């Protein structure tokens, strides 16, 4: 394969992500890209990506391992993605310490205890949709896919009902890759002010929630305790990761099923389960297309002879890797009966998403409740008319028009 002549400039508005992913894969196991002005290696080969995600030669700590860190913090719209001090950006012992503190909140027992809460939230939202007249349209993303995970993460973190929409707006801007550096910085300041307010409120009146437990850990954890900066940025991580990704999972699952009624028929006939739908959606349309950033701790040779040099940035391109032709047969087909639905939607290795089990449970519950209540739901527009959210990170639609009772 010939060497790539120039970096591929990733589209911040994600106008045609599928075409862009095909272009990236055509460059070999990794492609040189421009991520809003930052040079990086987009890794699209799943074998190579798994190797890098588990390698000690790859770090998520830009402060220690990326020469471009200081400049990015000043000028890059995605500065928050590398500058936050939490489990997401930690490396080595720091990562193990932070993950150990947070992991108990996502144990199998705690997820099972949350299932009735998710069921109640989904049923309540479906009750609200009952008021939509037959034949009338509604935006299912706005009225179901968005409020459900907001309510779940709000319950988990103890975010007051009256503050959840504010957090939603701010988190949306974190994933929006069309904002200017100044707009991104202003959004970060506002978001941190709200997080500081939440922490202060929880200190004054602790509750039975993860936020209060994290504050207790920060104050009583001894040598393993969270610093104040780590505490605030862990709040940021929990709210960001627990909201946007699940919104997109529900959005893409509903969109794909309504675009391919034969796949929904498999579920109704018992040939597939809602768990199958969730896993195939995560493979076919992962909630996160590209996840910034990782960094080479030392030179890393690639299978085609090129080298990722020490200090260069690495972009985990999950959407392109999930549909790599060497991994799955007919990778562009959405097939809920597919026997092997392996994917990288939740990452791989030590940074595998702690909230994966919660996201899967939310997805299965929300889809079951929705289609049980509205078995004849249909798209209100042609699939090609749906517009993507303006993000090279987030993989969803700006709206999801449907008719619940055609």
Automatic annotation (TrEMBL):
Keywords: Heme, Iron, Metal-binding, Monooxygenase, Oxidoreductase. InterPro entries: Cyt_P450, Cyt_P450_B, Cyt_P450_CS, Cyt_P450_sf. It holds the Pfam family p450. Belongs to the cytochrome P450 family. This is Cytochrome P450.
């Amino acid at each position: 394969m010939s060497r790539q002549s120039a970096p591929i400039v990733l589209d911040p508005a994600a106008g045609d992500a599928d075409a862009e992913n095909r272009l990236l894969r055509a460059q070999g196991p990794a492609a040189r890209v421009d991520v809003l002005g930052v040079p990086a290696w987009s890794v699209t080969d799943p074998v190579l990506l798994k190797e890098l995600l588990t390698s000690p030669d790859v770090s998520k700590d830009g402060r220690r391992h990326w020469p471009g860190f200081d400049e990015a913090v000043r000028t890059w719209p995605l500065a928050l993605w590398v500058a936050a001090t939490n489990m997401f950006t930690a490396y080595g012992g720091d990562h193990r310490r932070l993950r150990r503190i947070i992991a108990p909140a996502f144990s199998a027992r705690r997820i099972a205890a949350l299932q009735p809460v998710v069921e109640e939230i989904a049923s309540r939202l479906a009750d609200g949709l009952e008021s939509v007249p037959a034949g009338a349209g509604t935006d299912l993303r706005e009225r179901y896919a968005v409020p459900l995970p907001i309510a779940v993460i709000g319950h988990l973190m103890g975010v007051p009902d009256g503050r959840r929409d504010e957090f939603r707006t701010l988190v949306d801007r974190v994933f929006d890759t069309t904002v200017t550096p100044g707009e991104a910085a202003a959004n970060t300041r506002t978001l941190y002010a709200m997080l500081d307010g939440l922490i202060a409120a929880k200190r004054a009146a602790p509750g039975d929630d993860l936020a209060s437990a994290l504050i207790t850990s920060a104050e009583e954890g001894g040598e393993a305790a969270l610093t104040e900066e780590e505490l605030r940025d862990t709040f940021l991580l929990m709210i960001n990761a627990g909201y946007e990704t699940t919104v997109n999972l529900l959005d893409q699952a509903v969109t794909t099923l309504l675009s391919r009624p034969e796949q929904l028929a498999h579920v109704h006939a018992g040939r597939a389960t809602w768990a199958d739908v969730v896993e195939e959606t995560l493979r076919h349309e992962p909630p996160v297309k590209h996840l910034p950033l990782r960094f080479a701790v030392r030179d890393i040779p690639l299978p085609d002879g090129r080298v990722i040099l020490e200090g260069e940035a690495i972009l985990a391109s999950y959407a392109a890797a999930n549909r790599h032709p060497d991994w799955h047969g007919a990778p562009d087909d959405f097939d809920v009966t597919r026997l092997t639905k392996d994917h990288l939607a939740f990452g791989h290795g030590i940074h595998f998403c702690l909230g994966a089990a919660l996201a899967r449970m939310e997805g299965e519950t929300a889809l079951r409740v929705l289609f049980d209540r509205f078995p004849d739901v249909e798209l209100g527009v042609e699939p090609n008319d749906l517009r993507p959210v303006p993000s090279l990170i987030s993989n969803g639609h700006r709206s999801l028009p449907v008719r619940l009772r055609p």
